[in-house]
Design a protein that fits this description.
The protein has two domains: about 130 residues, Rossmann fold; about 90 residues, Rossmann fold. It contains nine helices and eight strands. It has a four-stranded parallel sheet, with helices on both faces. Strands 6-5-7-8 form a four-stranded parallel sheet, sandwiched between helices. Helix 8 links the parallel strand 7 and strand 8. The radius of gyration is 16 Å and the shape is globular.
């Protein structure tokens, strides 16, 4: 039997209550790449709880690097956009410099993926309460994107909802003057409906888990195409270093 050697090893520090990132990433990752996870204590979305995750993030990067990983993602979209675009970029840059490996964030990956697809006007869908949805909109605008519409669930029970809800949420957010949809939240099941939703609206859909994997792969120099996970992976993209 012939085995495929691992070329890349990628790491994620994720919220302890998350049940989706590992599931979806394992189904998207290329066969020559392994993925490894650490969990940060987190059981509710509040400003205090999300900020506490960020304080704990560096020690989880250090733990993950015991496995000699090639790049690491801060795998919580809400925590990474909470403080705004500048704060997020400063965190990932400082962690990359400190540990000598690319460190990216899930919120930053959404922006990088949108830019790679040529999106400038985006509709936003997320299973967030109003205050957190507004923080996301502010972050995207600070990154230079125009937000045409934003739709949330008004609750924290995102994991109670299946992929059909994510598809419906994206369709409700969509406006004809948008270039695509950003479907935010690493704890929301989107993988099974990414391409169906793109067919519904006739435009790209960028999700947190899809964008995070894509950004990590770009950071380590991977180039290629992957099927059944949206337009983002359907064309060759040049490798990109973490944003300065």
């Amino acid at each position: 039997m012939q085995f495929i050697p691992w070329r890349w090893k990628l790491g994620y520090a994720i919220p302890s209550w998350n049940t989706v990132i590992e599931y979806e990433t394992a189904r998207m990752v290329p066969p020559d790449t392994s993925v490894h996870f650490s969990r940060i204590v987190h059981t509710n979305d509040s400003p205090q709880s999300l900020a506490a995750m960020t304080e704990e993030f560096p020690q989880h990067v250090e733990l993950l690097l015991h496995a000699e990983l090639d790049a690491i993602c801060y795998g919580c979209t809400g925590a990474s956009f909470l403080g705004g675009r500048k704060t997020d970029l400063e965190l990932t840059r400082s962690m990359s410099e400190r540990f000598g490996k690319p460190v990216v964030s899930m919120a930053g990956a959404l922006v990088d993926a949108a830019e790679a697809l040529g999106l400038s006007r985006v509709a936003v869908a997320a299973p967030y309460e109003p205050w957190l949805l507004e923080r996301l909109v502010v972050y995207l605008r600070e990154a230079g994107l125009t937000v045409t519409n934003s739709v949330g669930l008004g609750q924290q029970a995102n994991i109670l909802h299946g992929p059909d809800m994510a598809r419906d949420l994206a369709r409700r957010a969509w406006t004809e003057d948008s270039d695509g949809v950003i479907l935010s939240c690493g704890n929301l099941r989107t993988l099974e409906v990414l391409e169906l939703t793109e067919t519904d609206i006739g435009a790209p859909v960028v999700s947190s888990n899809q964008a995070a994997l894509w950004r990590l792969l770009q950071a380590v120099g991977w180039q290629g195409r992957l099927d059944n996970i949206g337009r983002l992976f359907q064309r060759e993209h040049p490798a990109q270093p973490p944003a300065p």
